[in-house]
C-alpha cells in the first residue's frame, strides 16, 4: 500500500504545485492520474519515490516513511518518466536488461531468464542485439519500460507511457498492464491518452492545480468518450468554483 497524506509542495518563489493532496494506491489498483500540463502529476510521483521532498504532509510506501527513508521506499517502486532514457546507449537491448537485472541483485541465470521473458512479452526479442543508441524514440520508450520490469518492484509508476509508441507497441503495453500476473501489485499511470486510460485503469483521479478535483472507479465510464466528458466537466466545474471564489 502507498499512502499520501495531506501533501503540499511549493516551488520558489510562490508556485504551489501540490495542495493538501491525499490518495492511496492499494494492491490490484491501476490508478490513472488525469490532469492538464502543470497539474502536479509528475511532482507527485517524484515526492512518492523520494526524489522531491514535500514541504508538508506524509507519504508511506509499504509502511516506510518516504521523507525519513527515501531509499527504503524507492526499493518498492519501479518508475519510467516521460521521455526518460534510463538505458546505456553503448549496450544492446539484451545486455541493458541483463545489467539492470544484476544491479537489482538477481543471479545471472535469473536475470537472463527474466530478460528473455520481458523481451518476448514486449516484442523486443528481434531487437536483442541492437544498440540502445540506434533505437527509435518509441523503441527506447519500450526499452525503458522493460528495464523497469527488470527491477521486480511491487509498484510500477508510468509517466506518459504511450508517448512516441506506435499502435502495436501501445497494444503490447496495454495488454501487459491489464493481464493478470504477478509482475507487480499495483500501478500508477499519468497520461493524456484517454482511450489508453479507459482501457487500462480501474481507479481514476482528476487533478488540477495540485488539487484532486474528482476520484472514482471505472464503473463511472462505459466508454472513453464518457471518461473524457466527465474529466472536462470536472475541470470546468473546478475552474468555475475558483472564479467564484476569487
UniProtKB/TrEMBL annotation:
Record keywords: ATP-binding, Nucleotide-binding, Transport
Signal sequence, start to end: none
InterPro entries referenced in this protein's UniProt entry, alphabetically: AAA+_ATPase (IPR003593), ABC_transporter-like_ATP-bd (IPR003439), ABC_transporter_ATP-binding (IPR050763), P-loop_NTPase (IPR027417)
Entry annotated with the keyword Nucleus: no
Regions crossing the membrane: none
SUPFAM superfamilies to which the protein is assigned, alphabetical: P-loop containing nucleoside triphosphate hydrolases
Entry coiled-coil feature ranges: none
Residue span(s) of domain ABC transporter: 2-234
Family per record: Belongs to the ABC transporter superfamily.
Protein name: ABC transporter domain-containing protein
Source species: Geobacillus subterraneus
